[in-house]
Amino acid sequence: MNEAHFTPEFFEFLLELRTNNNREWFESNKSRYERDVKEPLLRFIEDFEPRLHSISTHFVADTRANGGSMFRIYRDVRFAKDKSPYKTQAAAQFRHEAGKSAHAPGFYLHLAPDEIFAGVGMWQPDSESLAKIRGAIDANPGKWERSAKDKKFLADFTLGGESLKRPPKGFDDGHPLIEDLKRKDHIASVEFDVGDTFSPDFIDDFTDACLDASPYMEFLATAIGLPY
Questions:
Q1: CB 107, CB 118: distance < 8 Å
Q2: Domains (ranges, CATH) in the chain?
Q3: Is the sign of the CA dihedral 20, 21, 25, 29 positive or negative?
Q4: pTM for the full model?
Q5: What confidence tens digit (pLDDT) does each residue in 149-163 have?
Q6: Contact, 201 vs 2, CB < 8 A?
Q7: Which helix (H) or strand (E) holds 145?
Q8: Confidence check: pLDDT of 62 > 90
């Protein structure tokens, strides 16, 4: 029997942080953050590891508080107009073992009071990786359609991200998969309700979503030369 990882207090803290996004408030409520947000998410990451490895052993669930699967609560405000010091969502990315950043292939969990979703794919891949993915789509259109346009996958997931306005170099507008070739991101997401996260079965629901996306993830990983 699973134990629920998240409670209403998890989202209450994030909601209060929205209107108190300053260091003084955060420091006085840091014990709440540790207890209600950080520790539950790290426990989720730990418990998800065997489920993740049942999908692929090449993806990592890292429970380190810094440099692991959990994103830091602190914002990088060096080049931002918004100088709010803290993120008002919690998130974890289970990226490929070969990846060093959030741009690597990965499974993603986003937890905010009004936006909860599982994400998969590659966000803003570098130009070399993007060229390899386009080449793989062009060379293996049937495999691409079986992974990215599978009815079971698209029954829950929505493809997203940015696209070029014009065809990429080497492809013409008449290509049957031109809209896929125009993509600058290869990401997809499925939404959940807040109440879903309070269930002991939420970790299984997240796992099932990742399983449904596995062929899509496999296509992207192998397209850029990574094992799956």
A1: yes
A2: 8-71+84-223 (3.30.930)
A3: positive
A4: 0.94
A5: 999 999 999 999 999
A6: yes
A7: helix 141-148
A8: yes
